[in-house]
Specification:
The strands form 2 sheets. An 8-stranded mixed beta sheet has the order 3-4-2-5-1-6-7-10, sandwiched between helices. The protein has helices spanning about 35-50, 65-70, 100, 110-125, 145-150, 165-180, 215-220, 235-240, 245, 250-275, 285-290, and strands at about 20-30, 55-60, 90, 95, 130-135, 155-160, 185-190, 195, 205, 225. The protein is built from 11 helices and 10 strands. Helix content is about 35%, strand content about 15%. It is of the alpha/beta class. β6 (about 155-160), α6 and β7 (about 185-190) form a beta-alpha-beta unit. The chain has a single domain (about 15-290), classed as 3-Layer(aba) Sandwich (Rossmann fold). α4 runs parallel beside α5 (about 145-150). Bound molecules: adenosine-5'-diphosphate and magnesium ion. Adenosine-5'-diphosphate binds near residues 33, 36, 37, 63 and 235.
């Protein structure tokens, strides 16, 4: 199980790692409405079902939907004796949403630095306890809000969510470029609402047109993490606070979320293992010789 491993020591220039959180995964998108929050919540619960300790941080101030999706609407997190915010809990995960903290129409007036600060507080001043995974439902797009967020939350990797349309890929590609610019590794792309599997005749219907994401990903050296179907049970259950992996764990979509969670977890483990295996340059071998070393004086003529 993930939490039996030692804490990872992946090199990270900035921001600083958080001691009790082993890894932080961002879920991002080029635009809203593609299913980012649904992916984030179902991955989080899938990881928890395998025994990992998981937190979900809803940082999407444009449309914080985690409270409704987890059945936590109206929750008012308390502050404990140590002055830390106590996260809400549902379906085996801990959750904090920007939606718990702000009135519904307030967020739009926020600027990047304010959000960055608020989210930093969510990560660092929330009593998460020990977590194996913190999943962050990121705001969509490439504006200053997500920029400052990526500079304050030490993301170990990001998954981006798109839909089959070519325009959606163009948007998500901008988000991918932004992540690489910020040195956040993009673990791969998930194509959501790719097709509808008709239970009556067993056929798959590409409602939003044929999928090109695997080809687009190959062209841009991006890992294609797979295509998720439109499932009729998703929206009505989510509105009742039941993510599909809870409401219909046997459904095809739920099984795909479980696989997706396992793939992403394995990618993060591989990344940590690689970082641990990397020797620090010259460590041990040079340690004695280097103490006597005098750098040459610069020429002054
Ligand atoms: N695979 C899916 N099948 C059916 N409905 C979906 C699926 N993924 C997401 N939805 C629904 O689409 C809407 C938008 O999803 P959401 O996760 O809120 O998007 P985002 O966070 O990107 O804005 C929600 O009503 C959600 O229940
Ligand atoms: Mg959302």
């Amino acid at each position: 199980m993930a939490h039996s491993h030692a804490h990872g020591s992946a090199p990270r220039p900035s921001p600083a790692r958080i001691a009790n959180i082993r890894c932080i995964l961002g879920v991002g998108a080029g635009k809203g409405g593609v299913g980012k929050s649904t992916v984030a919540a179902n991955i989080a619960i899938s990881l928890a079902k395998t025994g990992s300790r998981v937190g979900l941080l809803d940082a999407d101030l444009y449309g914080p939907s985690v409270p409704i999706m987890l059945g936590l609407k109206g929750a008012k997190p308390k502050v404990n004796a140590n002055n830390k915010i106590v996260p809400a809990e549902a379906h085996g995960i801990k959750a904090i949403s920007i939606g718990f903290m702000i009135q519904e129409d307030m967020a739009v007036a926020w600027r990047g630095p304010m959000v960055g600060q608020a989210v930093t507080q969510f990560v660092r001043d929330v009593d998460w306890g020990e977590l194996d995974y913190l999943i962050v439902d990121l705001p969509p797009g490439t504006g200053d809000i997500i920029l400052s967020l990526c500079q304050t939350v030490p993301l170990d990797g990001a998954v981006v969510v798109s839909t089959p349309q070519d325009v959606a890929f163009a948007d998500v590609l901008r988000a991918v470029k932004m992540f690489s610019m910020l040195q956040v590794e993009v673990l791969g792309l998930v194509e959501n609402m790719s097709y509808f599997h008709c239970p009556d005749n067993g056929k798959d219907y590409p409602i939003f047109g044929p999928s090109n994401s695997d080809r687009h990903c190959a062209e841009h050296s991006l890992t294609f993490l797979g295509a998720l179907p439109i499932e009729l049970g998703v929206s009505p259950n989510a509105d009742r606070g039941l993510p599909i992996v809870v409401a219909e764990p046997e459904s095809q979509l739920s099984q795909l979320y479980v696989q997706l969670a396992a793939t992403v977890a394995a990618q993060l483990e591989a990344k940590f293992a690689a970082a641990e295996a990397q020797p620090e340059f010259g460590k041990g071998f040079f340690s004695e010789a280097v103490t006597d070393y005098e750098p040459p004086k610069p020429h002054t003529h």
